[in-house]
Amino acid sequence: MVFRFFKKRRMDLDELPKKATEQKKNGDIDPGELQKKATEQKKNGDIDGAIISLRSAYKQLEKQGIKWPINTYLRLPLFLQKAGRTDEAWAEFNALLRAPESDFMLSMNHSIIHDKMRLFLQREGKASLAVKFGVLSYVETAIAYDKQGRPEELKQLQDEEIIHSCVKSLLKKANKPECEYEIAKIIIKHMKSIKKINLSELAQSVDAIVSREKA
Questions:
Q1: What is the percent of the chain with per-residue pLDDT over 90, rounded to a whole number?
Q2: Residue 23 lies in a domain
Q3: 18: enclosing H helix or E strand
Q4: CA dihedral 152, 158, 162, 163 (to 10 degrees)
Q5: What is the tally of structural domains in the chain?
Q6: Which of 107, 132, 114 is nearest to 204 (CA)?
C-alpha cells in the first residue's frame, strides 16, 4: 500500500462548533452564516466579496471570544491567492504561525499551516521552495503525535521507508529527485530525537540542499 501523507484536508462547515451561534449577541452576525456566504460568493465568482465576508466572520469570532479549528482561518489566504493578492495571503499564513496556541495543539496546527503553505507555493510554480514546508509539516505531525501520546502513529512516521516515500513525492514536484537520499537522511536523524528537533535548522538544511545547482 502506497503511503500518502500529503492529502487534501477538507473542512466541513457542519462540523464546526455550534457555540458561536449559541453565544451570538443581539445585533451580531452569525460567523457561521458569514462563512457560508463567503463560500457562495466564491462559487459565484465574487472572490473579493468572499474575502470581506471571511474577514467579518473572523472579527465576529474574536468579538465573541471563540476560536474555531485552524482550517477555518486557512480559508482566507487561499481566497487571497485566488484573487491574486499573494503577498497578503503569505502574510496571513505567517500571522497564523505567530498566533498563540496551547502546546498540545501547536505542532499539529503548524503542521496543517505549513502543508497549506506547501500547496500555495506549488500553485505559484515554486515547487522547490515548497519542499521545506512539506518537510516541516511532516515532522511537526510527528512532534504532535509524541505530545499527544500516540506512539503507533509516531512510529509510522519514523519509518525510514515512509520518510523516503514522502520526500520522493515532494521532490517530484520540484524535479529534484537527486536530493532524496540527503534530505531523507536529515529527517531520519532529527526524528530519532523527536523532543529536541530544531525546526529552523531542519528547514535551512533542506532549503540548502534543494537550492543547490545540479553538478
A1: 75
A2: no
A3: none
A4: 150
A5: 1
A6: 132
